[in-house]
Structure formats: C-alpha cells, structure tokens
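Lab manual, section 2.4: Encoding a predicted structure.

Procedure: take the sequence of the chain (269 residues), apply the prediction step described in section 2.3, and record the output as structure tokens. A sample record is shown.
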Amino acid sequence: MTDLSLPKLPPALPDKRQVAASFSRAAASYDSVAELQRDVGQLLLERLPPMVPGRWMDLGCGTGYFTRALGARFGEANGLALDIAEGMLRHARPQGGAAYFVAGDAERLPLEAASCDLMFSSLAVQWCEAFDSVLSEAYRVLKPGGVFAFTSLCVGTLHELRDSWRQVDSLVHVNRFREFETYRKLCAASGLSVVSLEKHPHVLHYPDVRSLTHELKALGAHNLNPGRPGGLTGRARILALVEAYERFRQTQGLPATYQVVYAILEKPL
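Recorded output:
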C-alpha cells in the first residue's frame, strides 16, 4: 500500500517536523543501539491483557521491531503500523509485520472512529506536544472495550546528563519530558479507564560520555528542544561536561537513567 501523505502541520508545532526528520535520518542506525527500546517494548507486550484484537495498530512504529512482534501474535493481516517519520516507514515496510504502513500524526490519526481494538505504542508519545490530543484520538479510534497500551518517558530521564550540563552552561542540552503526575491527570480525564499506570526506572551504563551521546544521536533522540545550542560544542565545554559526569560513575560505568511510564487504558463498553 502507498503511504498516506504526512499531514501538513500548523506553524504552532515547529518541532514536530524536526522530530520526524531526526528519526527518519536515524532509521538505518536505530536498531543497532535500541537496547532500551526493545526491553521496554517487551515489558509492555507482557502487560497486555488477554485479547484477540480484530484490528491492531503499532503507533509510532519506528523500524517495525514491535510491529513484527504484534503481527506474529495477532496476525499480520489485521495490523497497521503508523509513524510520523517517513524514513522509518521506508525501513520498516520491507520487513513486514502489518498489512499497512501509514505516515501520520498521533495527535490527528488518519483513521475512522471505532476502527481499532488495540493501540500499542512504545516510547513514542513523549514526542507529542499535546498528549491530551493523543488520548482523545485513542478514545475516538478505539472500539468499546478496546485497549490503548503505551510506554513513555517522564521527568527524571537522563538526569545525570542534564545535571552535568548544568555545571557547564545554562543552555538546553537534554530533551524535556512531562511529569509523571501530568500523565496520571491526563489519563484520568481522558474518558478511558485506567487499568494500570506505573513508573519504573531503567538504568543503562556506558564507558564514557561519548558513547552515550553517540547512542542518542543514532536513535534520533538527541536534543530536539527549543533553546538548544546551535553549531558545534567547543572542546573546553565538552571536557567540562566529561568532568562533571564523572561524579556519577559507578562500577559498571557511567549511568544513564530513564524514567519509563507504563500504561494500560481501556475504552469503556
């Protein structure tokens, strides 16, 4: 199937295009460094309630790793993979897993109302500016009794890197994320029933700062925030960052903590 065109986004959301472009560029390198993404998505799969969905969707499918897992479990013919990054879709489509690969925005899904039994989304919705719109679209698109299962990142993610940069300058070097309490309030107000909503830390370790920043770039998840520094970072500032981050060193290496939100929501019958 030919991808639908990426919807034209209003100028009020300038960073969404940058997010799409960044992840499109990272499509070829993403899977080689996606240890956290695979682990978190697997834990979300294990949290799914017993179900046999008619139509399922992998929302923010990326390279299609979990599209293929969902297709193996629920049937490829019933599946739809959606992502805002067309480069990711071009990478995912030849590997299969779903019947359709569609370019689209989680805040304005190109789907009919009550057309889906399961929406699965792992580590994608943190890039959406209006998460209440994502929830509203999930409510609209899900059939009664349908499930929206998602993981996301919240405040506290990469706090070691953020705190280390604060020792160097006052610019924005690390992506900002919502408070866990914000997820709780928005989910409670969404009209969807909250089956479970939890936060768990995942800690990865690196031999040095360069290994961490290289991985973030390879994932397409490097700094995308307004207020980030432009141009190259000078050697003196990099050395200062390295020195500041060394304060966190553990036996296993330099830690990078991700605060991961796990949620299972259900549309009432």
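Check your result against the sample. The CA atoms of residues 9 and 174 lie 24 Å apart.
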